[in-house]
Amino acid sequence: MQESQRANGALLHPPRFMTDEELRLHFGLSERALNRLRCTARFPRRDSLINKTDRRAVEHFFDRRAGISSPVGAAMGAVVDDGEENFN
What we know:
The protein is mainly alpha-helical and about 90 residues long. The chain has one domain. The chain is built from five helices and two strands. It has helices spanning about 1-5, 20-25, 30-40, 55-65, 70-75, and strands spanning about 15-20, 55. It is globular and about 30 Å long. The N and C termini lie far apart (about 50 Å).
């Protein structure tokens, strides 16, 4: 079933943990772009046991970078790194 969903290049329900190739396909990144992101301190690290990266953590990384709040971050109790504080 998963192979038929991959026929058009994307999964209907992408896996939680992805290889570098799957991450590049899912997020539309080139190999060089992913390598450059991996060099940054805040990009999610690859799990050494399964050699895959958590897709939801990568989504949260891009949301933070774009300056939008993420439902992933809210579920994890994280706060937005940058932005004005609103005490009203």
